[in-house]
Amino acid sequence: MSTDSRLSVAVVGAGYWGPNLIRNFRTSPDWDLVAVCDLDSERAQQTLGARSGVDVTDSVEALLARTDLDAVAIATPARTHGPIAEAALRSGRHVLVEKPLSHDRASAAAMVDLAHEEGLVLMADHTFCYTPVVQKIHDLIAEGELGEVLYVDSVRINLGLVQPDVDVFWDLAPHDLSILDFILPGGLRPLGVAAQGADPLRSGRSCVGYLTLPLPGGAIAHVHVNWLSPTKIRQMVVGGTRRTLVWDDVNPQQRLSVYDRGVDLTQQSVDAVDRAASTVSYRLGDCWAPALPETEPLAAMVAEFAASIREDRAPRTDGAAALRVVSVLEATGRSLAADGALVDAGLESADAALSRGSRLHDLELSR
Fold first, then answer.
1. For residues 40 and 62, is the Cβ–Cβ distance under 8 A?
2. Phi and psi at residue 332, to the nearest 5°
3. CA separation for the pair 37, 14 (Å, rounded)
4. Positive or negative torsion for Cα 99, 256, 148, 150
């Protein structure tokens, strides 16, 4: 570990997302960025700037051979996350991985298990979970301001780049799924996953997708993702028994609105089960917009990474949360192959495996 109060970190990957991590680690009071690793060392150097004192390498092996490294942040293609993260964990380094944690559930589970075995922090860069608006949504739900969650409707559409290696679900839905995992009590634990996708461009992968997630207690979540829309919409509606909130991420003037409006169904007789025995009433109350601070989400994310290491605790978006997201994403493929049928996300077996891994780790520490 670094000799001063800061932790030392290296970023692997200086392509699309890496520069954002590099910038935030460089400006964080918690971190000392000591190296950047990229196959294109010239690109890495350009990202750092000509007068930078940060080392540049094109070899992960050389990077992990350093003795002045506490943590590694990975911003490479998803299919490479597993091998790099496992090598870093085996070398004794804490690991941060951009979304999604991995390209499949098996690899993601192996990463989570290894982090437990080594007693190291494995954290996912689910950036939206560190935005002031999503943290406010989390707090409103946790404090009971919305009542019991009845439904979530999320839309993430724009005229986007058709990715060469993943479909629209794997490209866009990780954002919505990670948010759901963060704001829903107990995390993202759907009773099943049903996905419908379309490929009107004949690109070989879904460009438009609809994801339906039945939730415990009768609630439901729906996610719409689309690369082909001429308009950009980033909106989430969370309806509760008391209030409903609307998050419009492309409206900087009023990102979050809370409505004291909804439908109440009052049962008139405990013996009656038909609708005639119930009275429907409508609430038409006020709407208010919570004040939100302007903070850099990635700055909060790297600060949480440092705090979780120093305090020896799970980070807000830990490996278990990331595994739940990947499990749902992988289930979308099985549902698409089954013509949109509801399929099991396998979250119960994942939870059982995590529990076994945690118990084994605790047993080893007690010996």
1. no
2. -60, -40
3. 7
4. negative
pLDDT band of 215, cuts 50, 70, 90 = very high
In tens, the pLDDT along 275-318 reads 555 677 777 788 999 999 989 999 999 999 999 999 999 999 99
Closest CA to 59 of 129, 6, 12: 12
Structure tokens at 361: 């780790």
Instruction: Quickly list DSSP for 322-348.
Output: HHHHHHHHHHHHHHHHTTT--B---HH
Neighbours of 271 (CB within 10 A): 7
Which has the closest alpha carbon to 63: 76, 50, 51? 76
Q: What is the rounded distance in angstroms from the CA atom of residue 114 to the CA atom of residue 321?
A: 15
Phi–psi pair at 236, nearest 5 degrees: -135, 130
Distance CA 278, CA 287 (A): 27
Q: Residue 141 is which amino acid?
A: I
Amino acid identity of 154?
S
User: Tens digits of per-residue pLDDT, 172-212?
Assistant: 999 999 999 999 999 999 999 999 999 999 999 999 999 99
